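Encode chain A's predicted structure.
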Amino acid sequence: MQQTEQTIVAPATAAGEGGIGIIRLSGSEALSALWRFFKPTATVTTLSSHRLYHGYIHTADGERLDEVLAVYMRGPKSYTGEDVVEVQGHGGPLIQRRLLDLFLDAGLRLAHPGEFTLRAFLNGRIDLAQAEGVIDVIRSRSEAASRLALRQMDGALSGRIYSFRDKLLESLAFIEAHIDFPDEEIEPPELSRVVTSVVAIQQGVSSLLAGFDHGRVLREGLHVLILGRPNVGKSSLLNALLGEARAIVTEIPGTTRDTIEESLVLGGIPLRLIDTAGVRDAVDLVEVEGVRRTRERCSTADLVLLVLDGSTPLQDEDFLALDACRDRPLLLVLNKGDRVCLPLVEPFSSFSSVSISAKTGMGLDLLKQKVTECFSVSGESSESSLISDRRHREALLKCRVALDRFMDAVSVQPSPEFLALDLREALHSLGEITGETTPEDVLGQIFSRFCVGK
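Encoded structure for chain A:
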């Protein structure tokens, strides 16, 4: 874990040309470091907190470096909970580098990835779930994902977890009171109140877990694999869905030798479209490797769009393609639907299908609707209770296992010591979500996902 005694500095805006570039400082020396180089336009001797000041940054030699706006945010009312300074200058890479070098040469340390948010966590400004919401907001690829991340950042998930924790602490205190005073037996009416509370927590935890798949879809997106025999129109379908010529399309079978991946948002759901090499008994070594990769990707796809040529009879290679994805969610796409479509035979006729023409665009809207229906996310109100992070899911699963053990123990023979142990384990699992019991190496992994200036 990084030390928080040092004052840190880093660019808070992305590298490259822009109208504004922000340099952020955090720590006890942030304000004094600003005064070394900042000369306000107005005659002021002190900077009021949370107020913008116009002025110029000068080098130690007195050279005017940039015209800026500077703001000082006195801790604890700042993002990190420490004294924070932001210098808003022009966004060119050269001027931003020179501004940053000024503060580094003055003895400040370059921030590590996520260190500003880490300090906010360590200083109690936010908990770990809220910190993870910050990075999810930055990385969200759809409006629905952004709304979900904002709710997590604002504490919607944390509030549920703290509610569970408070009820568990109350139940644990009751159980431990009987451990401290062993002569006092736990009467069934008294224990029933604890059981009622634990059952309510179990239901709440199960409710959060039930929403994980939808939350994961919003956060990570869906991997949609476009599969089929060579020259059936897979790359044409990818191009049609994207609205651009991303993949090369020719009449030569086996044109696509490797997977091509592109992002798309449908119905508020981020998708990762994956165009694959055609499935067949290939001889060419490059194509053989492409087919192997196609089969490998099938095992991890959230949905497979199995493309068939609806205008020609089924071929052996169509059956090979179906066999490659039998255990995955499947939607048949009958391409070349602008021609005469032949009826499907078993086992293809048992799957849901959509007739389209990748060439004319016929049926594409219906296909998009079918894809989103496969993973539809219910309305606005449900998003506030979704979990989307696999780490949170694992912690909640461990919590539920501990609560299940508690209920089993109660039904057999209530021993206060074992009952208390189960409740402590449940509490520890919940603490992994909010950061109260999260191991230090896990904290390091979480904050390393952030950019340097956040």
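The longest strand covers residues 64-73.
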